[in-house]
Design a protein that fits this description.
It contains 3 helices and 6 strands; from the N terminus they run E-E-E-H-E-E-H-H-E. The chain is an alpha+beta fold and 139 residues long. The protein has 2 domains: 29 residues, Single Sheet (N-terminal domain of TfIIb); 98 residues, GMP Synthetase, Chain A, domain 3. InterPro entries: KH_dom-like_a/b (IPR015946), OsmC/Ohr_fam (IPR003718), OsmC/Ohrsf (IPR036102).
């Protein structure tokens, strides 16, 4: 895997993946200052969320469960001192579909957390990661 990050101006950078996709990153110059794009650490959190949400949907679909949606809400805390690593991350999954069983959804989330989601497993080195879920039956 390769990538490139190019400084544009001020606190703005453009990152490009090896597959040719680009994203803008911007770090706030002060704690409450407005930004024009997510910060690099926000992308880390969103990347981990994308990784685990992808896993959960994939696992449920592979098991032939009628999953129709997955909305993942993320909350994180960071250390107050440098390096300001994530110390806590909570994933709240809202999974929708027909006839989804709680134990099946819980197992898909556990498989992602314990085996498949590289990003979450890596972040677990500094952060306590928790999760919960709710199911919306479209049925």
């Amino acid at each position: 895997m390769k990538g490139r990050v190019n400084w544009v101006e001020g606190n703005t950078f453009v990152a490009e993946s090896n597959s040719g996709h680009a994203v803008v990153m911007h770090a706030a110059p002060a704690p409450d200052a407005p930004t024009i794009a997510p910060s690099p650490m926000e992308y880390v959190l969103l990347g981990a969320g994308g990784c685990t949400a992808f896993d959960v949907v994939h696992i449920l679909k592979r098991g032939r469960h009628d999953v129709q949606g997955c909305d993942l809400r993320l909350e994180a805390e960071r250390a107050t001192e440098d390096p300001k690593v994530f110390t806590k991350i909570h994933y709240h999954f809202i999974v929708s579909g027909r006839n989804l069983k709680p134990d099946t959804v819980e197992r898909a989330i556990a498989l992602s957390a314990e085996k498949y989601c590289s990003a979450s497993i890596m972040l677990e080195k500094t952060a306590t990661i928790t999760h919960d879920f709710e199911i919306i039956d479209l049925g």
